[in-house]
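# step 3/5: fold
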Amino acid sequence: MRTNPHVLEVNAKLWFNKIKRDIGRQITLSDIPESYIVKMKAAGFDALWLMGIWQESPTSRQIARTDGPINNYLKKIVPDYNTEDIFGSPYSICSYKVDDYFGTKEDLLKFKAKLNENGIALILDFVGNHFSVDHPLTWQQPELFINSKENPGDKELFYQNRNGVWLAHGKDPYYAPWTDSVQLNLFNPKTRQMLEETLMQVCPLCDGLRCDMVMLMLNKIHKEIWGKYLKFDTPYEEFWPGVIEKVKEKYPSFTFIAEVYWGLESEVQALGFDFTYDKILYDRLLFSNASQIAAHLGAEHLYQKRTIRFIANHDEEAPLTAFGSTEKSFAAAAVAYTLSGARLFTSSQIYGDKHRLPIQYQPQTMPIDIEVKTFYMKFLDTINHPCFHGGQWALKAAKPCDDTNMSYQNILTWTWTQNTTCKVVVINYSAQNSKFKICIDKLPKTDNILLKDEFLDNFISASYEDLKNKGLEIELAPYEFKIYSVDF
């Protein structure tokens, strides 16, 4: 993959169903026409994260279809939804076997080969924290899970397997238990061995793994949540470093992406992950101003290069709703996707979904917002330029036009420079008109430098002296952004 790769997350069943409707027949993954892959590459994507490819849990499906919160939410946003369009959670995995819905392991490998031939890597999910409640190991080897022979007295957290052993559901300490999952005991050496063997079997099927809720697998977090039930001493080492090293020895270009929160990103990067979620940036884009966002971007450069930026994923509200307006969502995209690091997009984001759908819900059709799709097609084409991938990123400071107008503080700005090309990004991340100056160095010494507006396809001209010393004066409307290109 390129430096600063573009990753597209698609809900596997939704995407697969659309292709089946398009071509009018039943297919497997190996039958997906190459034209879909060519189009994906033309849009600038380096990797496809196919979310929800593993064998679905029948119990998880039943739980989802009778779940009160899921159904109540769907009634609000899709009043005429069909319960039959609700499936099991992709993160309640019954087996790391390709679900029959998509074909076989061989079909997946053929699909992967098509992607790779077109320069696209395949990313799949790995959930190291929990399995589905009906996973065969829950009754074959219950000792691999957080378990109790006696009734723990917490009916919300524990359930009985078919042999009468009490097993714990997976849990994030800040939320209710995931009742379609069962929690692995990560202090049990046999559990770790089983997980490692499972992961090594999965790696040949893809080019990278997006690893779910990695912070819950850290020894200190696992002990904090499950201490009294662990029955084993704290391991001397974390689970991930040794496993990642083994995979990289066999597949040197394999990519590990960690879903991680709580300020633990640097710690997880140190375990060997190539990219970690940048939830801090996402939250600041939602709730903070330009100065606070810029402060986050002052972090050490290597750390930033190993983050994955996003304004949408399957856990977050759709950008159009989350950011409150189309304009602010576009400005947030301009921030997140013109920084160093991996850049995560979702197909629903590009098509302009107004609401986040539960990951269990797979409607037969999805609406498309033409304005949003048109924006993303142009934006993706713009940031596909080599300068945004092989160039040098530099954070800049906007300057005031005069002593009375403080609106320059609303501006985020940076440059990308590669060989004889410079890209200048300026973003008004506020709800007011903002006027400012920006100085740009490393430009040719000429009286007439042309800056091309990438979105309007027009030019503005300025002298070397103005750009380097006096500053180029710009005014932007609320949440307006510009990407200028200079060739020299």
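# step 4/5: annotate
The longest strand covers residues 411-418.
# step 5/5: archive (pending)
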